[in-house]
Amino acid sequence: MNKSNKSLKIIICGGGTGGHIYSSIAIADKLKEKLLYLNIYPNILFLGSLGRMEMEKIPLANYHIYGLKINKIPNILWKKLFVFPIQMINSFFTINNLIKKFNPNIVIGTGEFISLLPLIIAVYQKKPTLIQEQNLLPGSINKILSKYVDKICLTYEESLSYFKNKNKIIITGNPLRSEILNNFFSKKEACKKLGLKPDKPVILSIGGSQGAHSINNGWLKNIKILIDNNIQIIWQVGNNDFNKIQQKCIRHPNILIYKNIENINLAYAASDVVVSRSGGLAISELSTLGKPCLLIPFPWAKKDHQTINAQLLVNNNAALMIKDNEIETNMIKKTMKILNDVSIKNSLSKNILKFSKPNATEKIVDEILKLIL
């Protein structure tokens, strides 16, 4: 193929949560970088669900997204019987026409329900296809798609047993944002930029892309302990609890409250310990940065996949874990245990680094390029 003055069209599907969205953005960024280096212009189109996070986050990353009136299978019976089938039929024809008109060189899925129809239609139209799975326990959509797509990129070798088509599979790890991979700030530099004291302990609390109500309540109950012990906290509370926490929580220089943390690289660099949900992307970020952490799996995640993610690290002495219903009694105790015991902190940091796959994005993009160049 003559690689000068050419263009390639790419569709990427995935959304609903930060894990799916940020993974797809990382893939798009690396694809754009590599293709431009080859003098190939990438025309990248995202597909998402109207009203979901991706409709806001993807444009902020400077990509175009087409919103579809489709969401996951509803729990309400009358919607299952009437609205959902109509949505699916309408979306089928919309996506089918869109793919025909856009004529992509490849269609990529990073999970969630939005990936299903575009990938199935792409296979039917004989377009190259690839899916990427972030969690140890694969999502049902990716398990369905794995039978039909050309390539499957997994984060964990332990996920292999869930798939039959081993010849399609490559273990890559999770694609990470460049600001995570290129996080060269020292704790002193990061604390200075955030207005914190570098000589005092710092906790980073991340409740997932939409915040975590139970984790927020846990900190509210125990915030006096942090203040009395001169412990600083970078606290991502999400949109829903932000106003309530600002009103309830006294203004204190040790407490930084955010709806969402835009400069996540600074927050990671400043922190001594991280308290986090255990989605696939969060664990990959913590592993790459070698952060000692307390994991609190989201108890209502599909098939409890966050607990399965976290348990892998716990079994390898790479993280501590508590259940969501233990937050008010155990979260502060376990966090302080990591902060106050240097041997535990160092051991967790050393062991979680063993799960790091910093070249994941590069590997995934290389597989994409093999399918289209």
Radius of gyration: 21 Å
Number of strands: 13
Q: Report helical residue fraction.
A: 40-55%
Mean pLDDT: 92
N-to-C order of helices and strands: EHEHEHEHEHEEHHEHEHEHEHEHEHHH
Broad shape: globular
Count of alpha and pi helical runs: 15
Residue share in β-strands: 15-25%
| Strand adjacency order, main sheet | 3-2-1-4-5-6-7
Helix-strand makeup class: alpha/beta
Q: Name the poorly predicted regions.
A: none
Distance between the termini: 7 Å
Give a short account of the largest sheet. Answer: 7 strands, parallel
Can you describe what's shown?
With 373 residues, the chain is of the alpha/beta class. The protein contains 15 helices and 13 strands. A 7-stranded parallel beta sheet has the order 3-2-1-4-5-6-7, with helices on both faces. Strands 10-9-8-11-12-13 form a 6-stranded parallel beta sheet, sandwiched between helices. The chain is globular and about 65 Å long. The model has no long low-confidence stretch (mean pLDDT 92).
Strand and helix map with partners:
Elements lengths: L5 E8 L4 H20 L2 E10 L4 H7 L3 E5 L8 H26 L3 E4 L6 H9 L4 E5 L6 H6 L5 E4 L14 E3 L6 H4 L5 H8 L7 E5 L6 H16 L3 E5 L1 H11 L6 E4 L5 H7 L2 E4 L3 H10 L3 E3 L9 H11 L4 E2 L5 H14 L1 H11 L7 H13 L1
Parallel strand pairs: 1-2, 1-4, 2-3, 4-5, 5-6, 6-7, 8-9, 8-11, 9-10, 11-12, 12-13
Helix pairs in contact: 1-15, 3-4, 7-10, 8-13
